[in-house]
Design a protein that fits this description.
The protein is mainly α and about 120 residues long. The protein has 5 helices and no strands. It has helices spanning about 5-50, 60-75, 80, 90-100, 105-115. Helix 1 runs antiparallel to helix 2.
Length: about 120
């Protein structure tokens, strides 16, 4: 391999690696995370009746659906998705739906947790 070819190939590979790192670091969430988040919101809303059929029908159930939709829409990065189990919102959400009755107190607490985020 000639010196000129080697230098050109190193320069091209360096540029490609730098472009790949830039895309992964700054654009990956825009290209994959945002469209994925829209699909998740649509899936949650479409499957809400099947998944939440154990919760008694009430105005609070409808409000809970809107709160969960807003929570998912407010997720800003992939790092937040990884830590969902540790968040207070989901901990309290699991407690709130255990008894299949959603109270006004539980809704207000979930709203406060959503605003804290």
């Amino acid at each position: 391999m000639k010196k000129g070819c080697f230098i050109k190939s190193v320069a091209i590979i360096t540029i490609l690696i730098a472009a790949l790192i830039y895309i992964i670091e700054y654009k990956l969430e825009d290209w994959f995370f945002e469209p994925g988040k829209k699909l998740v919101v649509e899936g949650v809303l479409n499957n809400w009746d099947k998944e939440a059929n154990f919760i008694k029908d009430s105005p609070q159930k409808d409000s809970l659906k809107l709160i969960v939709k807003e929570y998912i829409e407010n997720i800003k990065s992939v790092k937040e998705v990884v830590n969902l189990e540790e968040e207070n919102f989901f901990k309290f959400f699991k407690i709130a739906i255990e008894d299949s009755i959603i109270t006004d107190y539980e809704l207000s607490q979930l709203t406060l947790l959503l605003k804290e985020k």
